Amino acid sequence: MSETPENQMISSDIVILGGGLVGMTLAIGLAKAGIPSVVIDNSDPAAQTAEGFDGRASAISTASWNLYSHLGLAEVLEPLGCPIASIAVTDGMKPGRIDFQPGPEDGTLGRMFANRDLRIAMYAAAAKESLITFLPNARVAERERGDHGVAVTLADGRTVKGRLLVGAEGRASPTRDEAGFTPARWSYGHRAMIVGLAHSKPHGNVAWEIFYPAGPFALLPLLDDAEGRHRSALVWTVGEKDAPGILALPDGAFQSAVQERMGDVLGEVRLMGPRSSWPLNFHHTARMVSGRLALVGDAAHGMHPIAGQGLNLGLRDVAALIEVLTEGMRLGLDPGDAQVLARYEHWRAADTFMVSAATDVLTRLFGVPGRLPSAIRRLGMAGVQRFPALKRFFMDEARGMSGTLPSLLQPA
Q: How many CB atoms lie under 10 A from the CB of residue 94?
């Protein structure tokens, strides 16, 4: 990976705007396929990888793990991730829960990683690739797309030229908005509070999804730390109007509120690190491509974290885009060719819509208060628990192993 001085013109095949987990994985995958790219990111890698645990973590599905394996990242990441052996889903800790547990031949349901560990691995892998030019701390001043190429002008005067522009800046993607995409969007009126927890009981590699009318309360298993403390990441969804008061609680009161909602499943808990919060909203673009432009990840589809599928959906975009670009360029096509981009959009449209719609329905279904709705939900969950084929369907969806998969998402 190389960096460039100011006032220099840089040329490459692909220009990726956004160097987060999705954008950087795309660059690494393209480099492995022999396709050069420039990654432009406005953040500071030092800040993104600063020491400390803030509770931010991501579930990496089976399909996403296959992608990392193909890209040579699995060996580095393996000792850092906590396998998810099962997922317990319950309506307010009442009877009638579902336990999703794959068979021995399926392996795990995924792996949990602290986001910091994922970023460190991505930066290190990208640094080894000569076909990746990384421009951190860079602000985009202007984007241009023409019949024969794309150009990005940075605030410091540098110009980056290429043949395809990829928008990977996340939910607030200025590239998407400037291109005139009009996503369907709405706010859930919820805020996710995130913090790391230490707890007295081992989690047993079980992820808990506890649904309350105000929103889901998720406990995500992580590896024990260097001192042997049992750890999990908490994602607690509350109403937007209640969030400021809950965030302002002293640590002791906040811990008591957490303990009340999770019972004794992990024993006594205490906070590890600062609390953070994020507003929860939905957006989905009907289209993912335009003239010499493709969107990946949250730039195209942002959803409620209820099922932990946001990053995984973005990584599925990455695998599909790499495959269509590689095959198209092997045939002599321009990476910005409309046929190449149309194939990517067609491949990803159904999956992104179905996952986005499913998470939205789940959020609304479990958000209906009252005893009767709760009883109906628990009855339905008990039914799923009794039908292995139905549980298998849901597990395959969660593992990302359904549908027609790009080769990078298939087992290595």
A: 14
| pLDDT at residue 215 in the model | 80
Given a contact cutoff of 8 angstroms between Cβ atoms, the answer to whether 18 and 167 are in contact is: yes
C-alpha–C-alpha distance, residues 328 and 318, integer Å: 15
Where are the chain's structural domains?
Answer: 9-53+60-80+114-185+283-409
Considering the four listed CATH numbers 3.20.20.70, 1.20.1440.230, 3.50.50.60, 2.30.30.240, the one that applies to the domain covering 9-53+60-80+114-185+283-409 is 3.50.50.60
Report residue 3 as tokens.
């960096």
What are 360-395's pLDDT values in tens digits?
666 655 555 666 555 556 656 555 565 565 556 555
Backbone angles phi, psi at 174, to 5 degrees: -70, -25
- Residue ranges with strand state E in 71-118: 82-83, 86-91, 98-100, 111-114
Q: What is the CA radius of gyration of the chain?
A: 21
Q: 123: part of which helix (H) or strand (E)? A: helix 115-127
Say if strands 111-114 and 98-100 run parallel, antiparallel, or are unpaired: unpaired
201 neighbors 284 (Cβ within 8 angstroms) = no
Strand 215-222 vs strand 37-40: parallel, antiparallel, or unpaired? Answer: unpaired
CA angle in degrees (0–180, nearest 5) for 298-299-303: 35
Predicted pLDDT of residue 269: 95
Query: Which DSSP letter does residue 395 get?
Result: H
Sign of CA dihedral 311, 390, 100, 63: negative
241-249 long-range contacts (CB < 8 A, ≥24 apart) are 241/189, 242/214, 243/191, 243/193, 243/277, 246/193, 247/193, 247/275, 247/277
200/191 Cα distance (integer angstroms): 27
Nearest to 167 by CA among 11, 349, 23: 23
- How much is the average pLDDT of 235-251? 91
Residue closest to 234 by CA, chosen among 253, 221, 246 = 221
Q: Which among 207, 227, 223, 168 has a CA at the least distance from the CA of 15?
A: 168
Cα torsion through 57, 58, 59, 62, rounded to 10? -130
Among candidate residues 104, 374, 371, 359, the one with its CA nearest the CA of residue 382: 374
According to DSSP, the residues that pair with 217 across neighbouring strands are 210, 236
